[in-house]
Specification:
There is one protein chain. The strands form two sheets. The chain has a seven-stranded mixed beta sheet with strand order 3-2-1-4-5-9-8, sandwiched between helices. Strands 6-7 form a two-stranded antiparallel sheet. β6 and β7 form a beta hairpin. It starts with a helix and ends in a 5-residue tail after the last strand. The protein is α/β, with parallel strands linked by helices.
């Protein structure tokens, strides 16, 4: 993860240019359809701030965080929101920090599976009962370094098996999409919406 954070420090401007205009409206719509108006949303791994700004502009109450200090500055400038810099592995909700929705778009995929499990449990603590978690991974079963960053890929079957270890979440739906960035439509993504069904023990 440290090498991945450094990648974003070194490539923040390039990454922002390649992703800030990506059309994520349909994904956001499916997520927001499950939330009440004005819901509290945590953008977990906000990158350039693209989605945090879209949520804010729709009058949702948005908290944004990222693991890269440079990306946090870029996102703060773009959204006008304070952006917290937190290593995903160190995230734990503060007392009283609760959300109706957590948006983890192409962020948790940078954690090793053994790191992903405790982080998802912390996200479960941050969600209100019945709260919604959106997350996405590259489609496949690869785990390791790719182009300077660590990736954990999932298939639907692989993620269902993984999710059995986190009983506070129930999978509501999943769907597969192509990459919306120019020239990368052949890349596939696994998108999932989970619902918090229990208070974690």
């Amino acid at each position: 993860m440290n090498d991945t954070i450094q990648y974003y420090e070194d490539h923040a401007k390039e990454f922002t240019a390649n992703t800030i205009d990506a059309d994520m409206e349909e994904l956001r719509r499916r997520f927001l359809a499950r939330l009440p108006e004005g819901a509290r949303i945590l953008d977990f791994g906000c990158g350039s701030g693209r989605d945090a700004k879209a949520f804010r502009d729709l009058a949702y109450e948005v908290t944004a965080l990222d693991g890269s200090e440079t990306m946090c500055r870029i996102a703060g400038d773009f959204t006008g929101l304070p952006v917290r810099c937190v290593d995903f592995r160190a995230y734990s909700p503060a007392q009283g920090e609760r959300y109706e929705g957590i948006w983890a778009c192409a962020s948790l995929l940078h954690l090793k599976k053994k790191e992903l499990l405790p982080v998802m449990r912390e996200l479960g603590k941050a969600l209100e009962p019945g709260g919604i978690l959106y997350l996405s991974f590259k489609y496949g079963d690869y785990e390791g370094e790719r182009n300077g960053r660590y990736f954990t890929d999932f298939t639907p079957e692989g993620f269902c098996e993984f999710l059995n270890r986190i009983p506070e979440f129930r999978q509501e739906e999943y769907w597969v999409t192509g990459d919306v960035r120019p020239g990368r439509g052949e890349e596939r993504w696994l998108n999932m919406i989970l619902k918090k069904t229990q208070i974690p023990t």
